[in-house]
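Sample log: Peptidase metallopeptidase domain-containing protein.
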Amino acid sequence: MNFSGCHIGDKVDGLAKIKKYFHQFGYLPDPSVDNFTDDFDDSLESALKTYQLNFNLNDTGVLDDTTLQQITLPRCGNADVVNGSSTMKSGSGTTTNHSDSSSNIHSVAHYSFFPSQPRWPSWKRDLTYAFVPENQLTDTVKAVFTRAFLRWQDVTPLTFRETQNYNTADITIGFFSGNHGDGEPFDGILGTLAHAFSPPDGRLHLDDAENWVIEGDVSTSSSNAAIDLESVAVHEIGHLLGLGHSSVPEAIMYPTISTGLKKVELASDDVDGIQVLYGGNPNGSGSTGSTSSQERDSSDGGVQYMGSFKWALSLVIGGILLVL
């Protein structure tokens, strides 16, 4: 389907799927979820402009190529707009002051929180996590999550430890397919990768259909659908701790991630946001910044996939095949 250049007043076959995408991530209100039309109406234009602001795009209200490319990127399943309010900063940000003995530095913060800023209570700083027993994950896969938790532990007073008691764990982690009972069904390869619930719910769900890379350099994968598991795990743990999405592309809490990209280092925006909720860790390294790689090679270079599967890229997102 070719949606490039669509604007208000147009009627294009398949535009209802774009509306469903915006509904899924909070940009369109709940009514008529099963009644979307192919008309480019006022509500779609408004949703599109908000989306464009959140992702630092020109807020033209037109489905231009750049916007369509952003829509097709794999992403977190958590909504960007909750109860009609954007949890992202819509490209504006909030000015924060960082003072020391020699300077008063002003920076723009783009981190966000869930409505009412839920967080783990002050008396609970040692959080336990457990994996869905039915998944029977290997130690190698579990180690990915251990590393992901340590990145947040390093900059907060929180600690994380695995427990074998799934029923009493503060945080539960599992891989699921399709409709798995929480009202947020997965959609297969790419599209929605994972989602997590705000404190103190503690549920982290990942799409079992993804071509998860657990070891090796994801940028050398020969698969066009390879997703780095640790990168997604670090992002979703941010949600478990109370962070919403950020409009800073370098931030871990940015909603989308490209295939073949490894992005595991917390950016300063992530650190500032989580420390608003919990304060810092005086014993942590305090390291910030982000590293990434999008280079690909024709060989797999020792890349290890979960379940040893390699998937071909057979769809883009939610059944939408876009022609740019």
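Observation: Residues 167 and 239 are 21 Å apart (CA to CA).
Observation: Helices lie at 15-24, 42-54, 65-71, 139-153, 229-241, 268-278.
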